[in-house]
Amino acid sequence: MTLLECIKGPEDLKGLSHEQLTRLAGEIRDLLIETTTRTSGHLGPNLGVVELTIAIHRVFDSPKDKIVFDTGHQAYVHKLLTGRVATFGTLRQRGGLTGYPSRAESEHDLVENSHASTSLSYADGLAKAYKLRGEPDRTVVAIIGDGALTGGMAWEALNNIAAAKDSRLVMIVNDNGWSYQPTIGGLAEHLAAIRVNPRYEHVLDYIKTTLSRTPLVGAPIYGTLHGIKKGIKDVLQPQVMFEDLGIKYVGPIDGHDERLVETALRHARDFGAPVLVHVITRKGLGYPEAEQNTVDCLHQVPAAGAAPGTWSRVFGDVLVAIGARRPDVVAITAAMLHPTGLAQFAAAYPDRAYDVGIAEQHAVTSAAGLAMGGLHPVVAIYSTFLNRAFDQALMDVALHQLPVTFVLDRAGVTGPDGASHHGMWDGSLMQLVPGMKVAAPRDARRVAELLNEAVEVSDGPTVVRFPKGKVGGEVEAVAKLGGTDVLREPAGGLGADVLLVGAGPMALVGLEVADRLAVHGIGVTVVDPRWTKPVDEALAGAARQHRLVVTVEDNGRAGGFGDAVARLLRDHDVDMPVKTFGLPQEFLAHGTRDEVLEEAGLTPQHLARQITEAVALRSPGDVRETATAATEGHPVE
Ligand SMILES: Cc1ncc(C[n+]2csc(CCOP(=O)(O)OP(=O)(O)O)c2C)c(N)n1
């Protein structure tokens, strides 16, 4: 039995010797590598916080003390130290452990949102709540990376925390110099200056020896630390920055020296007011493939870059081509240069690509400024993170009718990252924005077509949304209906039982549905509107030639494309039943994309069955019998 297997909770850590802790750290690293290379996951970040997490759980008393991981992708070690060693092999698998903290999994887990830069705000609120409720013996601990610290929310929180003088709050900045990419921006340069400063190593040694001579009690000790810090103030700048905000600063500390981190955390804990502990770690430590990975220190396995054949890569290639023709086209990413496929564009046109850090709101309003300045910005962002910048898209871009193109990668079900990462909101949010045009390509050819059309729009914003993963085969239109592609007409031409309108790749699912229904004598016209907003008016005319309209989208059903189609028909007085298929308006658990789609009923088989039933409700005779057979357990295959 390994030492790690004996750790059932944080209390089991407290009696371990230094040698045992070193052994434990090694066992944790082995398990992280062995598991994530099999299941996928955030390997690099977790390898970097092994000693830090051990120290946190030895110093603080979770769950009485509250531990908030910013983003939460670096909480695997925390999972292992809080009773989840035996189940760790199920990481990110359907029904298994989630890739982020999960309140359903453990009383030690608190924040599971996985959108970055929120930890300090949660911590601020928690600390205020405990103060108000008269629970002064609780400490709130937030662990935030240097990447997450580039997000605006973190600074809004710091501004408030500084004023909450008697909050028992410890903020640990886990500074590894990386987010996905080396962290960029003024703050990052500030922090980087410490690492390259020739006196840095010396300072770490100095702090180490001084601290180890210091007795472990209370605020006076903090004063000693403070004195150390003051002594090096002129060389190392962050303390000046944080102290100017009114926040006590401790560091920089070598985050792989467990004893040293513990000592600093004990002082911070006992200080009784907000303290920021600056810990320097190495992302990927202990796994050469991660340490030597110059793209992102294996932030994730498998790597999140835009692999050949993926939607992201197709987009990246198309944008490079557009960039050659259109010198006014510029690109913006929020800390996701490689995963969004923008890396090629940045390599080809370095002056025209901006990585703004984890700062989606700023990215969008900065894009508005670029557009006002005469350029056409393409903001490449994961669909789920656009939520952050809704107001900026609405008021800063759309209200001004600015030509900004949003490229939303990972739109729809994403898979193993779970509820917070499914891109199932944008399709509805964007329907709300006046003047916004939304395109949903069904295949690679349509990515090129629609992105080119989008950057030609000069009087307002556009969106191009596509899912995660590999692009499927290409399907050409057999006819045109306004701007809509007709992909399949039933025998005898347009006019049949069902008009199936599939948004993006769901149009291809629609083709499979049509094949299944044809076997049972149900005629289906399958169309791809290409643009899901505004809804093509031609659909109203087409609807009149059918008995049922069906929409299918990889987005939440509420207020999505289907609802927009139903509204169009109402507005045109087309008295036609509309069935809208999409994702249930719920926080959908993790699993593979196929598993989640299956559960949501968005597979050809499920759709065919439900459509058969809907047709049967409205038809006498043969079809009704088919549907009855289907509902009685003879699925329509
Ligand atoms: C709002 C938001 N934008 C983008 C991301 C994607 N993302 C996940 S982790 C990460 C990098 C985080 O860097 P850092 O905080 O330094 O932590 P590290 O991985 O280096 O430990 C990014 C950009 C996110 N989770 N949330």
Output the radius of gyration: 27 Å
Cα-to-Cα separation, first versus last residue: 50 Å
Largest sheet, in brief, is: 7 strands, mixed
What structural class do you assign from the helix and strand content? Answer: alpha/beta
Low-pLDDT stretches are: 206-236, 628-637
What do you see in this structure?
The protein is of the alpha/beta class and about 625 residues long. The protein is built from 26 helices and 18 strands. A seven-stranded mixed beta sheet has the order 7-6-8-9-11-10-16, with helices on both faces. The longest helix has 22 residues. The radius of gyration is 27 Å and the shape is globular. The two termini are about 50 Å apart.
Throw out a few tags for this protein.
637 residues; six-stranded mixed sheet; 42% helix; single chain; alpha/beta; 26 helices; disordered C terminus; seven-stranded mixed sheet; globular; binds thiamine diphosphate
Quick structural overview:
Helices cover 42% and strands 15% of the residues.
How do the helices and strands line up, and which of them pair or pack?
Layout: H1 3-6, H2 18-39, H3 43-47, H4 50-59, E1 66-69, H5 76-81, H6 119-132, E2 140-145, H7 152-163, E3 169-175, H8 186-196, H9 200-212, H10 218-232, H11 238-245, E4 248-254, H12 258-271, E5 275-280, H13 288-291, H14 311-325, E6 329-333, H15 343-348, E7 353-355, H16 360-372, E8 376-382, H17 383-386, H18 390-398, E9 405-409, H19 426-429, E10 437-439, H20 444-456, E11 462-465, E12 479-481, E13 484-488, E14 496-502, H21 506-519, E15 524-528, E16 531-533, H22 538-544, E17 546-556, H23 561-571, E18 578-583, H24 593-599, H25 604-617, H26 622-631
Parallel strand pairs: 1-2, 2-3, 3-5, 4-5, 6-7, 6-8, 8-9, 9-11, 10-11, 14-15, 14-17, 17-18
Antiparallel strand pairs: 10-16, 12-13, 13-15
Helix pairs in contact: 4-12, 6-7, 10-12, 14-20, 16-18, 21-25, 25-26
The protein binds thiamine diphosphate (TPP).
Residues 45, 48, 71, 73-74, 114-116, 145-148, 174, 176, 178-180, 183, 283, 299, 334-336, 358, 360, 385, 388 line the site of thiamine diphosphate (TPP).
